[in-house]
Write a structure and sequence with these properties.
heterodimer; A: about 70 residues; mainly beta; 8 strands; B: about 450 residues; alpha+beta; Rossmann fold; 3 domains; 22 strands
């Protein structure tokens, strides 16, 4: 079992957090949705796993490359 | 005449409206959010009012705060620009209810055209062609489905009646595929929306987006020719031009007549745009929607007609412009607009906010090239608003001259900080298909790899 960092690909604001710690997620499933420049951009799980940490909350501003969640895969 | 106009917007269009106010001797009031405290539109206006946090919902979309700002500054009119509250009929009515002038059409026109189904019915009533389609179908009877399909013609789309997007949508190219496609859409629509009703609509494989600028004076309306806005990515326009290349003169004329007929049928006031989809193969065109506001791409029309559309809006709203004859409007040469976006073409045009370390248009020939922007060097592009950071507009004797002029202009723009589509725009303009007038809404998708490769930093280094 490995802990995997989930990073954002863009700078934006956290619009909706869709999962909580303990939730099971599958590969490509959105964990949260960012909002940037009128676009909604999902941050997805890169592998099947369980959410271990959510490091941001709704309305937070995140920059490109920020670790926003960790999953155990 | 209007005395003081509050501009309920930001960015380049706010700057554009403030400039028009100044030209006409009208005082201007800017509004701004936290993120825009040092934005150019704030400094340009005669007065400015802070209206709240960066989020649009708490500032530029907050009707109460904007009306308060108008009251506090003694403005006698509100210009909404485009986007934000510009097509919000309730806001337009609230402005008027306060005794202020709304620089735009009547709230009823905004409401009527804002509802797609209603707008389609108004178009049919005005004799304007709409995309052929069937009514809602509950049937699964193959004979009845086929009869509906034959009436529309193949290829066609099967769409879910509920929902607004493409969920369940299927393409059908020949009669044999029809029943299976309808059943597929029905079952998908049923599970997604709880309603399995579908309808059929003509599918246009190769389409152009062409729109006609109109200006209504209540009963009478004039047109200011058309704009081609086919070059889009993510359904957002990136390059617009006028006249529309390669469209037959009689098609163009009929589109203009249709646009005027629709505007006159609703007693339209002020600037508006009637959008059409043109079937490249057949030359047929169909009404899409009417935008009841000034458009982003209005400068293209201004460059070929010599008119100042924003000044006309202000003059008409203030009672200083009563009417205008069609014979007073003529077009000359060819104009192109490019939209510079803070986005990354190599990563599916994802937004790229950031600080504009360099934002320099001094290399652009100001006598020939028009630049509209709401940003300055050192300014920050935030994630809160749309990614457009500048519009570059050129005019040439003909299309080729305008294309060459635009490429030269873009090559002299220096922008550092956020990723932008600057080189992607150059690659589009310089693509053989674009030069050959082979434009359609599928252009970016069809040529994406070549365009991205041509716009990559390495390709531009030489």
């Amino acid at each position: 079992m490995a802990i995997i960092d989930i990073k954002t690909e863009i700078t934006g604001n956290v619009w909706k957090v869709l999962h909580q710690v303990g939730d099971k997620v599958s590969e490509d499933e959105p964990i949260m949705i960012l909002e940037s420049m009128k676009m909604e951009i999902p941050v997805v799980a890169v592998e099947d796993g369980v959410v271990r940490e959510i490091l941001v909350k709704e309305e937070d501003t995140v920059t490109e490359g920020t670790v926003v969640a960790r999953i155990e895969a | 005449m209007l005395k003081k106009v509050l501009i309920a917007n930001r960015g380049e269009i706010a700057c554009r409206v403030i400039r028009a106010c100044r030209k006409l001797g009208i005082a201007s009031v800017a509004v701004y959010s936290d993120a825009d405290a040092s934005a150019p539109h704030v400094g340009m206006a005669d007065e400015s009012v802070h209206i709240g946090p960066s989020r649009s919902a708490q500032s530029y979309l907050d009707t109460g705060k904007i009306l308060d700002a108008a009251r506090a500054t003694g403005a006698d009119a509100v210009h909404p620009g485009y986007g934000f509250l510009s097509e919000n009929a309730a806001f337009a009515a609230a402005v008027q209810a306060q005794g202020l002038t709304w620089v735009g059409p009547a709230p009823d026109s905004i409401r009527d055209m804002g509802d797609k189904q209603n707008a389609r019915e108004l178009a049919i009533k005005a004799g304007v062609p709409v995309v052929p389609g069937s009514p809602r179908l509950e049937t699964e009877d193959p004979a009845e489905l086929l009869a509906q399909a034959e009436r529309i013609g193949f290829p066609l789309l099967v769409k879910a009646a509920a929902g607004g997007g493409g969920i369940g949508m299927r393409q059908v190219f020949e009669p044999a595929q029809l029943v299976a496609a309808v059943q597929g859409t029905q079952s998908q629509a049923k599970s997604a929306f709880g309603c399995g009703d579908v309808f059929l609509e003509k599918y246009i494989p190769k389409a152009r987006h062409v729109e006609v600028q109109v200006f209504g004076f209540g009963g009478k309306a004039v047109h200011m020719y058309e704009r081609d806005c086919s070059l889009q990515r993510r359904f957002q326009k990136i390059i617009e031009e006028a006249p529309a290349p390669g469209i037959a003169a009689d098609v163009r004329r009929r589109m203009q007549e249709c646009a005027i007929a629709l505007a006159e049928s609703v007693g339209y006031h002020g600037a508006g745009t009637v959008e059409f989809i043109v079937d490249v193969e057949s030359g047929d065109f169909y009404f899409l929607e009417m935008n009841t506001r000034i458009q982003v791409e209005h400068p293209v029309t201004e460059m070929i007609t010599g008119l100042d559309l924003v000044a006309m809006q202000l003059q008409y709203a203030g009672g200083d412009l009563q009417g205008m004859g069609q014979e007073a409007i003529s077009q000359r040469g060819h104009a192109i607009e490019c939209r510079l976006y803070a986005e990354n073409p190599e990563k599916h045009f994802m937004p790229s906010p950031g600080v504009l370390a360099q934002f320099d248009f001094s290399g652009v020939d100001a006598a020939k090239v028009r630049v509209e922007t709401g940003y300055a060097q050192g300014g920050e592009i935030t994630p809160f608003y749309d990614p457009m950071i500048a519009k570059i507009i050129v005019h040439g004797a003909d299309r080729q001259a305008a294309v060459d002029e635009m490429i030269q202009a873009l090559k002299s723009v220096k922008v550092e900080g956020p990723k932008t589509n600057l080189n992607f725009l150059i690659a589009c303009l310089d693509h053989p298909a674009f030069r050959a007038q082979d434009v359609s809404t599928g252009f970016v998708g069809a040529h994406r790899d070549a365009l991205v490769a041509a716009s990559a930093p390495a390709a531009q280094a030489g």
